[in-house]
């Protein structure tokens, strides 16, 4: 274990770029939003100051309207190192957009940041932590205000407008909503894609996925990333992981508010209301988990994905059913390690392809946290042991084959290293 810890620390050192950490050098050469939150949690065990610097760098790119961007582009990295690069996202709005001179995408990612800050603050108390919390709290609160005020859809739930915003880009849950999207002229997309130079095409989203990703994001960009009338965008869904993480982080914001002497009232209220909406509107008893909602059609998406287990982070709800699903054949079987990203028994599972089956360390970590919070210690320890085992056998890979443990996607992946350090702490 000492050797694994040392190698995890080396991975985070290797990916540190002075102000923030890249997820991995070649495939993701900029700063990613939810990656930074997970990275900070692990980094806090090594360099608490660097952990807060990571989050500060991200929040320094916060838009005037409060959104915290999915990617903050590093100006030192060439335009064509990543697709779609900074030029594609322009023009960014001047009013309500990013700070002058800062280049970002116009999307968001699951808001794990407040929960990350509270996690760090609870484990590493002290004056430096207090100062960091005082600095970060108002910015995190503004991000949540943006999500609750501007992204509210379907009475009370919070929506996302691109599969990239879910963090689970090619989840089978997005197949149906994306089928309705006209991909436009798709030819040439392979030539533009940079990810295929750094990862096996069989581990990545397909060209058909990418053509639609580009059509969806172009529609949002072309209206200046405006959030009025969200269902008129080509893609608008409610994702159970995004909403569960937001409600969980909103609870964390209430705790952070108390620490800085601010009024926690609105956070408590919003967390309670969103939790209630998730439990009452997104649960599918037949599947034994929560499901996404296609806001454009009003229809639920009947797919059993790891996102549908994320409401285990919240108080109340259908916990016994979720625990059964998590322990049942869709997500567990002899030899299966971690929590697969998709139902292993589904005909369209693809155990090597990104979010269509592989085990990822971040979602496994979220469920580990949820299990610990509910006193499901033995189950939580099994997941932690799985993470250790996967990394010990295959290295700090981006994701893993849930059955064989084969390492997939890129190597030297930051959140794999960071969250391994956290489960070992
Ligand atoms: C990618 O480039 O594959 C990312 O997942 C987008 O955030």
Topology:
Layout: H1 2-15, E1 31-32, H2 33-43, H3 48-59, E2 71-72, H4 86-89, H5 113-123, H6 127-150, E3 152-153, E4 157-158, H7 163-166, H8 175-179, H9 189-192, H10 195-198, H11 207-222, E5 237-238, H12 240-260, H13 265-281, E6 283-284, E7 289-290, E8 292-294, E9 299-301, H14 319-327, H15 361-373, H16 377-394, E10 399-400, E11 407-408, H17 414-424
Antiparallel strand pairs: 1-2, 3-4, 5-8, 6-7, 8-9, 10-11
Bound molecules: (2R)-2,3-dihydroxypropanoic acid.
(2R)-2,3-dihydroxypropanoic acid (DGY) is lined by residues 70, 164, 169, 195.
Walk me through this protein's architecture.
This protein has 425 residues and is mainly alpha-helical. It has one domain: Glycosyltransferase (Alpha/alpha barrel), CATH 1.50.10. 47% of the residues lie in helices and 6% in strands. It is built from 17 helices and 11 strands. A 3-stranded antiparallel β-sheet has the order 5-8-9. Strands 1-2 form a two-stranded antiparallel sheet. Strands 3-4 form a two-stranded antiparallel ribbon. Strand 6 (283-284) and strand 7 form a beta hairpin. Helix 3 runs parallel beside helix 6. It is globular, with a radius of gyration of 20 Å. The chain starts with a helix and ends with a helix. The mean pLDDT is 97. Bound molecules: (2R)-2,3-dihydroxypropanoic acid. (2R)-2,3-dihydroxypropanoic acid binds next to loops.
């Amino acid at each position: 274990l000492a050797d694994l810890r040392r190698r995890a620390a080396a991975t985070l050192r290797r990916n540190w770029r002075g102000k923030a950490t890249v997820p991995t050098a070649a495939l993701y050469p900029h700063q990613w939003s939810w990656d930074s939150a997970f990275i900070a949690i692990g980094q806090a065990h090594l360099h608490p100051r660097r952990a807060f610097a990571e989050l500060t760098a991200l929040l320094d790119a916060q838009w005037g309207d409060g959104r915290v961007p999915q990617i903050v582009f590093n100006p030192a990295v060439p335009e064509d190192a990543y697709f779609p690069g900074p030029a594609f996202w322009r023009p960014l709005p001047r009013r309500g957009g990013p700070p002058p001179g800062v280049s970002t995408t116009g999307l968001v990612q699951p808001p794990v940041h407040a929960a990350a800050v509270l996690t760090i603050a609870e484990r590493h108390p002290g004056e430096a932590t207090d100062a960091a919390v005082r600095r970060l709290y108002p910015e995190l609160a503004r991000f949540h205000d943006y999500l609750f005020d501007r992204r509210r859809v379907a009475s009370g739930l919070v929506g996302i407008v691109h599969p990239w915003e879910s963090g689970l880009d090619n989840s089978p849950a997005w197949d149906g909503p994306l089928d309705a999207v006209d991909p436009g002229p798709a030819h040439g997309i392979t030539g533009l894609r940079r990810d295929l130079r750094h990862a096996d095409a069989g581990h990545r989203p397909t060209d058909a996925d990418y053509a639609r990703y580009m059509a969806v994001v172009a529609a949002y960009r072309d209206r200046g990333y405006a959030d009025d009338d969200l269902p008129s965008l080509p893609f608008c869904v409610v994702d159970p992981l995004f909403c569960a993480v937001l409600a969980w982080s909103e609870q964390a914001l209430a705790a952070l508010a108390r620490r800085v002497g601010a009024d926690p009232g609105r956070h408590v209220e919003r967390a309670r209301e969103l939790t209630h909406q998730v439990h009452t509107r997104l649960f599918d008893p037949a599947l034994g988990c929560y499901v996404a909602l296609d806001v454009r059609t009003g229809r639920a998406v009947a797919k059993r994905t790891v996102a549908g287990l994320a409401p285990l982070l919240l108080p109340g709800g259908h916990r016994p059913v979720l625990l059964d699903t998590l322990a049942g054949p869709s997500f567990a079987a002899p030899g299966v390690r971690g929590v697969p990203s998709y139902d292993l028994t589904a005909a369209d599972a693809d155990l090597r392809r990104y979010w269509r089956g592989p085990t990822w360390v971040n979602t496994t970590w979220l469920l580990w946290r949820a299990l610990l919070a509910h006193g499901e210690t033995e189950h939580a320890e099994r997941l932690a042991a799985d993470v250790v085992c996967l990394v010990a056998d295959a290295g700090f890979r981006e994701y893993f084959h849930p059955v064989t443990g084969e390492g997939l996607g890129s190597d030297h992946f930051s959140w794999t290293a960071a969250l391994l350090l956290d489960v070992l702490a």
